[in-house]
Amino acid sequence: MLSTIVSIMLGWKKVFAQSRTAIRAIKQALSSVCVIGRRTIARSYLVQGGEGDWSSEYKLYARSKWEAQELFVPILKEALAMCPGQLLPVGTDETRIRKSGKKIQTAHWGRDPLSPPFHVNLSYGLRWLHTSVLLPLHQGQAISARAVPVWFQEVAPVRKPGKKATPEQKQAYREAVKKQNLSVEAVKMFKQLRRKVDDLGGQEKTLVFALDGSFCNQKVFKANLERIQLIARTRKDAKLCFAAAQGRRLYSEQKFTPEEVLKDEQYQWQETLIFHGGKWRKVFYKEVTEVLWQRGAGSKRLRLLVVKPIPYRKTKKGKLLYRQPAFLLTTDLKTEAKALLQIYFDRWQVEVAHRELKDIFGLGQAQVRVPAAVARQPALTVATYSTLHLAALKTFGPERPDEFGPLPKYQRDKTRVSCQELIRNLRNEVVSQATLLPFDLQITQESMLAAATV
């Protein structure tokens, strides 16, 4: 697996101005995975057996000239080869990285997504736009999809003026918010990712972005996107309509909501099979085509998909419970509904990637405050995470290999290898197979333990 990781990372040489800078980035990426405990830049340097001044490790992010999103080009190339068919499923979401330093310019207070529904909490940190390719591993085997990040960009909100601001400053703030927000940056990302896929030979593929409800707005749905389709969760009380039957009117006067379609017996339930939670499950849905959303998409024709609440039991003999229904709007009027629903169900893997990156991979634990370093260092961490999962799929396949050892009794049904197991395997290979690397990287068990005490 180590040789596969390095072969993918060697594509980073095109990102940096000098080859030695690219080697330094690869060394730091590998050593950060080998760190035990909090993953800081200083510890990743000490893991390599470094002594003395480590300022060059920080200058990699603060002074070197390179574009963070270009790190994902070799990763996107590998992911394209694992996505057969005309559709390229992609999941997009926003996430927050908690910070405590008061000298980070773009850090701000924002809504904590883990807040309970009855009380909104605030958290101090950074906001990021995250996009992953959803590898459809379930097409060949009964394996859940895998989210491989191919875009990780900081999107800082416009700083709000104080109470003593003049009316001109307040007006300038309102105008700036319209031009610099998460939805505007998402549309820019859609177009840039489309160009990158074309450059890698994917001109015939159609990008299908599965979006959360925060992206279901007119900034996103009114955008002119070529060979890009959107599917997003919408509100149950969104005002929809059909085209006017006659006259000059474009929109019909009769409005309806997705919740009304859910309860209307005029629309029949359709049944399909969706792979989710480790097995194929029956899903019932309603479909309404040629829908207009006047306040959101304007004259653009949409399709509404209403997914019936899925029953489940907490125990084998427990009470039958139901989840909430899902209301989806998509710009794709031709693709089979089953394929679109499968992509949106696979979007959950983006949330899995968020958890692994923050809890296991140490995303955001590096102590940097220079604006360039704040935007670059997390992107390198996410690119390392993507490379690790791609190398594991190419080396071992989608299923958990036997060489990782037997599973405990409470995990016998587990089919995919965990992120923690991949990290342990990579640590062992870095220590035992360091001589096979095309550069010098001396990491030992003693250096890892010594760095953990710093």
Describe the structure.
- It is a single chain.
- The protein has 454 residues and is an alpha+beta fold.
- The protein has one domain (2-436).
- The protein is built from 14 helices and 12 strands.
- Strand 10 (311-312) and strand 11 form a beta hairpin.
- Helix 1 packs across helix 12, helix 3 (41-47) packs antiparallel against helix 14 and helix 4 packs across helix 12 (371-396).
Q: How many helix segments?
A: 14
Structural class computed from helices and strand pairing: alpha+beta
The count of domains is 1
Radius of gyration: 24 Å
Q: Report low-confidence residues grouped into runs of 5 or more.
A: none
Largest sheet: 10 strands, mixed
Give the structure's gist in a few sentences.
With 454 residues, this protein is an alpha+beta fold. The protein has 14 helices and 12 strands.
Task: Give the topology, please.
Layout: H1 2-9, H2 19-34, H3 41-47, H4 55-62, H5 73-81, E1 87-98, E2 108-111, E3 122-135, E4 146-154, H6 167-179, H7 182-199, E5 206-211, H8 218-221, E6 228-233, H9 258-263, E7 270-276, E8 279-291, E9 302-307, E10 311-312, E11 321-322, E12 326-330, H10 337-346, H11 348-360, H12 371-396, H13 419-432, H14 445-452
Parallel strand pairs: 1-5, 5-6
Antiparallel strand pairs: 1-3, 2-3, 3-4, 6-12, 7-8, 8-9, 9-12, 10-11
Helix pairs in contact: 1-12, 2-3, 3-14, 4-12
Write a concise keyword list for the protein shown above.
454 residues, ten-stranded mixed sheet, two-stranded antiparallel sheet
